[in-house]
Structure formats: structure tokens, C-alpha cells
Design goal:
This protein is globular. The chain is 48% helix and 16% strand. It has three domains: 7-31 and 231-243, no CATH class; 38-225; 255-391, no CATH class. The protein has helices at residues 7-28, 34-38, 44-55, 66-78, 80-86, 141-151, 188-206, 209-225, 232-243, 245-274, 324-332, 358-363, 367-391, and strands at 95-101, 114-120, 125-131, 155-162, 183-187, 280-288, 291-299, 306-312, 343-348. It has 394 residues and is of the alpha+beta class. It has 13 helices and nine strands. The strands form two sheets. A five-stranded mixed beta sheet has the order 1-2-3-4-5, sandwiched between helices. It starts with 6 loop residues before the first helix and ends with a helix. Helix 4 (66-78) packs across helix 5.
Length: 394
């Protein structure tokens, strides 16, 4: 006997559940979260900054090495062999660096880059934390960090931190042999959340309500980000899906079709606008000292998430006096100077960063909405090209 309801009834029940949830929320304020307000939930640098702040014995929390000790307790419990290999000295003199610059990335990608979190003690031990939320692995990224540890003659390990403890991709390591390479997997879902709860417990004992306020907000965000915690509305949706699997399947299929069709339309119109046949391409601005000045654009294939960087190939920027004014211009228009030796400027177009924004993805099916994304990008790039040509007096 088929007990499934009609699609209209299904959506009516969803609306009713949302109304009840919103009414309860207005009484509790449970969804008020500083990190959601700031939109930081997917920004890896912000996560590294929060974790690094708590780990740093010298930071403003004033608890010295307490949080560092609790963190290593969690790591040692998961990977007991680390304590034997490393014997990291936990005291107030430990050094913690966020986004540690280890030099320019060389041509074979075996040196240079930025380490998300770098911990070292006074006994020549080092811990590298590679923090991944959604970003993909860079070429030979972990190999570069291993080489840096060897270069500075440290006894070190790498903690590969992801939402769910997944192994690195596109690396030259066998997943089953990661620990032989001194690479250990940890996760936000289990290890970071467990550590934060231990920190919260210690703070309660010490009456540190202000620090716990930050930790509570961060914990709440991670619980939802990793799927550890479900609100009442989510649980009601799950119940409806279990009771009505056929309708749910059709909704998912229709949503995926709408989402994918919008992304494909956006990609096609980007190609048409820039007169290219792929989504990773160079636009030649001009020539400088007989070498091309290229504007490199990359629109990530897995979603509408573009960035642009100005690339001056085979030019020693430090020796070209004529190029110095361009640095000021790049900063003035919101571009950055990254560590990569080939990148002269870099900018992400935030309005395209909507991988998990359902409303955005559905809107991509509207031609005027897509034009409102592509045209400003095109005009900004044209203005950028014009300014660079004028500065180079070409």
C-alpha cells in the first residue's frame, strides 16, 4: 500500500515545519552565531586563525600552554606513535605561526609555499598542520612541507586536518603508508570538536566565560558544518524524506538538474564573453621587454568560483623599476601579492564563491542574473588591462 503524500502536501508540511522552527528560534536565538554573521564558515584561514590563537601559549587568552596540551592529548590519543616519535615539549615557550611563509614555490614544486599552522618547541620538534575545509591539494604540497622540515633540521610530523579525516588527494603517497611518511589524519568532526569541548570544560572550571563564548560559537558552527548536530527543522525534513522517498528522490533530481544547468549556462557565457573555449585561460594584455604580460583566469570546474591573477612570466619583479608603480595599483584595486613566484597579482571574485548557496545556484538559470555576474567581471578586467598598459607606457 502506497502511503506517500502528494508533492503539494509534501511542501506544505515542509513549510509548516519551517514555521514552527522559526517561531521556536525567535524565542531561543539558537541560530545567532558570530561566525555565520561574518560568513567565515568555509574560510580556511579564519579556521587556522582561531585554532592557532588557542594553541599559542603567548596569545591573549592568557592560559599559556593549556589549550596546546589539550590539543596534543587528543592527537596522541588518536595516534599514540606520534608521542614516541616526536616527544613535543609543551610549555609557554612553544612557537605557533599561522600562514608561515616558507619561501617562493620553485619550478618543480618541491620548495616554498605557506604552512597553515606551524608549531615548534625548544627541542627541535615541529608540527605542521595542513588545514583543508573544501580546498583541493596543491601540487606536491605535503612534499614541500616535508622538505622544509628537513631543511630546517627539525624532527617533525604533518597533521592533515579535514572536515571528516579524509586522506590527501593528488599526492604521491599511498594512503595506507601515510604514517610511514609521518603524515597523520585528523578531523574537525571528531578531533577538533573533542579538543574544543575539553577546552570548554577547563574554562568552566576557571570561570573563563568570555573565552568560552568564542568556543561555544565556534563549536556550534563546526557541529553544523560536519553534520554532528541537526536542528528540529532538519530532523523533520529527514522524517518526511523517509516517509516519502519517491517524492524526495524527484525533488533531489530536479534540484540537481536545475543547479547543473545553471552552472553550465554560466560557464558557456563566460567562454562566449571572453572568446575562449575553456575555463582556464590566459588573456595577453601586452608585451613588456618582449615578454607577454598575461592575465590568467581560472573558473573552477566544480562550481562557479573564479579567481584571476596577473602573471608576468620570466620577469624578475625586484629588478624592474618600471613595474613598481603597478604594485601600488594592484593593492589599490583590491588585488593581492601572493607567494607564488609567477603571480604578480591575485583576486578572488567573492560573488562567485557560492558552492553551497542553493538560492545562488538556482538563480543561475536566470539570464539577467548571469549577466549581472559576468559583465562586471569583464568590465573590471578590461579596466585593469587598460591601466597596466598605461603604466607600462605601451
Amino acid at each position: 500500500m502506497n502511503l506517500e503524500i502528494t508533492p503539494n502536501d509534501f511542501f506544505d508540511k515542509v513549510k509548516d515545519a519551517k514555521s514552527i522552527y522559526d517561531e521556536n528560534l525567535s524565542k531561543t536565538g539558537d541560530d545567532f552565531n558570530l561566525f555565520w554573521i561574518l560568513g567565515n564558515e568555509q574560510n580556511e584561514l579564519h579556521h587556522s586563525s582561531i585554532i592557532g590563537c588557542l594553541l599559542d601559549p603567548k596569545d591573549a587568552h592568557g592560559q599559556y600552554e593549556l589549550y596546546l596540551k589539550l590539543f596534543l592529548d587528543v592527537v596522541y590519543e588518536k595516534h599514540p606513535e606520534i608521542k614516541q616519535k616526536l616527544n613535543f615539549e609543551i610549555d609557554a615557550k612553544c612557537n605557533i605561526e599561522i600562514e608561515k611563509n616558507i619561501g617562493t614555490i620553485n619550478e618543480d614544486y618541491l620548495e616554498g609555499g605557506r604552512i597553515d599552522l606551524y608549531l615548534e618547541d625548544n627541542k627541535n620538534n615541529a608540527i605542521v598542520i595542513e588545514n583543508k575545509i573544501y580546498a583541493i591539494d596543491q601540487p606536491k604540497q605535503l612534499e614541500r612541507y616535508k622538505n622544509y622540515i628537513k631543511k630546517v633540521r627539525k624532527n617533525g610530523i604533518i597533521l592533515y586536518l579535514t572536515l571528516y579525516g579524509t586522506p590527501p588527494k593528488d599526492q604521491e603517497y599511498d594512503v595506507n603508508q601515510l604514517q610511514d611518511e609521518k603524515i597523520y589524519l585528523i578531523s574537525y568532526k571528531v578531533d577538533i570538536i573533542k579538543w574544543l569541548k575539553l577546552c570548554r570544560e577547563e574554562n568552566n572550571k576557571r570561570g573563563l566565560a568570555k573565552i568560552n563564548g568564542l568556543i561555544e560559537h565556534y563549536l556550534q558552527m563546526l557541529e553544523y558544518l560536519t553534520g554532528n548536530k541537526k536542528n528540529e527543522f532538519t530532523m523533520e525534513i529527514e522524517k518526511l524524506i523517509l516517509e516519502n522517498p519517491v517524492i524526495a528522490q524527484e525533488i533531489v533530481k530536479t534540484y540537481e538538474n536545475l543547479k547543473n544547468s545553471g552552472i553550465e549556462l554560466l560557464k558557456k557565457e563566460i567562454k562566449d564573453k571572453f572568446k575562449v573555449n575553456k575555463l582556464v585561460f590566459d588573456l595577453e594584455i601586452c608585451k613588456f621587454n618582449e615578454k607577454p604580460v598575461l592575465l590568467y583566469l581560472n573558473f573552477y570546474e566544480e562550481g562557479p568560483n573564479p579567481y584571476c591573477s596577473l602573471v608576468l612570466k620570466d620577469v624578475d619583479l625586484n629588478k624592474e623599476e618600471q613595474l613598481k608603480p603597478i604594485f601600488k595599483y594592484i593593492y589599490s584595486v583590491g588585488w593581492q601579492k601572493p607567494s607564488n613566484s609567477h603571480d604578480f597579482g591575485y583576486k578572488e571574485f567573492e560573488k562567485f564563491r557560492s558552492k553551497d548557496n542553493i538560492e545562488f545556484l538556482i538563480k543561475l538559470n536566470d539570464s539577467e542574473f548571469r549577466e549581472g555576474l559576468i559583465e562586471p567581471l569583464y568590465l573590471e578586467i578590461e579596466e585593469f588591462k587598460k591601466s597596466i598598459i598605461e603604466m607600462l607606457s605601451i
